[in-house]
């Protein structure tokens, strides 16, 4: 089994008017190649609001994949290619931004009007240099489209988002080899997850409490980063726990970032900014019916 390299409690951060839990990046840890960022946003919407007042309005991306897991509520995606999709709790929005795309992410009008619980996790996956300027590709997944595996003790349900697990394959088309899982595990449940030894890997838990590899205890909003010294991990729930596992082959290339752009050099970042400002990433005019 892999040993634990570091346990990182999420920091509370503010982005505009939104307060988030951020376990990555963290002090002393800029990224875990190929993963650049993890944001956990949980809120209770008060209702009697217009969707234009909520979420994140039109903004650009280039050179990486912002992926979003919806845990509670639903999320409306619009982008400059003309896509408009609402993904409900249990689903995934996966967007290879490629050469450039403008999108928005907001609770849909019914949730804005009626109010209710809203919880998502967004994480960023870097793209290799050879793929950064591919055409953008948006991939929504409903809960029914993801392979679901039940643990031998029947206490854990594992949703396969990307990669291969237990002889099944996820539908997401990624730029590099990944294994991405969503796991709900009841107290007392145990799960063994094989992970290729060359993959970097960590878990982030939304709530609950875990024993990892029979020893280390972790709790809500901890990111547990593993060393690449074994073929998998074992987790046992001390309490009902929701978690995600993000793992993949490191890309091993220079990373240059500026806001929503992730490239290999600062010159490429400046070109991305110029291309956005001159409309080369398209335009998104939101329409609220």
Write a structural description.
With 289 residues, the chain is mainly beta. It is built from 2 helices and 26 strands. It has helices spanning 109-114, 266-277; strands at 4-9, 11-15, 18-24, 35-45, 56-61, 64-72, 74-79, 84-88, 92-96, 101-106, 116-126, 137-141, 148-150, 156-162, 164-165, 168-169, 178-185, 190-194, 200-205, 209-212, 216-219, 222-226, 232-237, 241-248, 256-258, 261-263. The strands form 6 sheets. Strands 1-22-19-24-17-14-13 form a 7-stranded antiparallel β-sheet, with no helix packed on it. Strands 2-3-4-11-6-9-12 form a 7-stranded antiparallel β-sheet. It is globular, with a radius of gyration of 19 Å. The chain starts with a strand and ends in a 12-residue tail after the last helix. The mean pLDDT is 96.
Present the secondary structure layout:
Layout: E1 4-9, E2 11-15, E3 18-24, E4 35-45, E5 56-61, E6 64-72, E7 74-79, E8 84-88, E9 92-96, E10 101-106, H1 109-114, E11 116-126, E12 137-141, E13 148-150, E14 156-162, E15 164-165, E16 168-169, E17 178-185, E18 190-194, E19 200-205, E20 209-212, E21 216-219, E22 222-226, E23 232-237, E24 241-248, E25 256-258, E26 261-263, H2 266-277
Antiparallel strand pairs: 1-22, 2-3, 3-4, 4-11, 5-10, 6-9, 6-11, 7-8, 7-10, 9-12, 13-14, 14-17, 15-16, 17-24, 18-23, 19-22, 19-24, 20-21, 20-23, 25-26
